[in-house]
Amino acid sequence: MVMDADHLPEMLARLKLTALRDRLDTLLDEAARRELSLRETLALLCEAEVAHREERRIQMGLGIAKFPFVRTLEGSEADFPVHAPAPYARTLCQNARDFPPK
Predict the structure, then answer these.
(1) Could you tell me the sign of the dihedral formed by the alpha carbons of 8, 10, 15, 21, in that order?
(2) Which residues form the IstB-like ATP-binding domain (predicted)?
(3) Is 102 a member of any domain?
């Protein structure tokens, strides 16, 4: 079987490895710079694809969930020290769920 590097992006898309296809040159340059073996390079490529899919899964889940608002600790009235004991911080966070946002 003759390998043609020009068909690589097409094959990656067909295998649904689109994140890998989009970042292939960058990832291969990184592998060359780090002087990775073939096995290490393959691991780097797979890690990049897995990380992309995980991020996409989270983003799609957040979109599907359609949360009515975003809650963060910024701007909250919770006043506890940065190094508060875990049970105390956990109780404050649990109690915060009982109150609607302002």
Answers:
(1) positive
(2) 12-86
(3) no
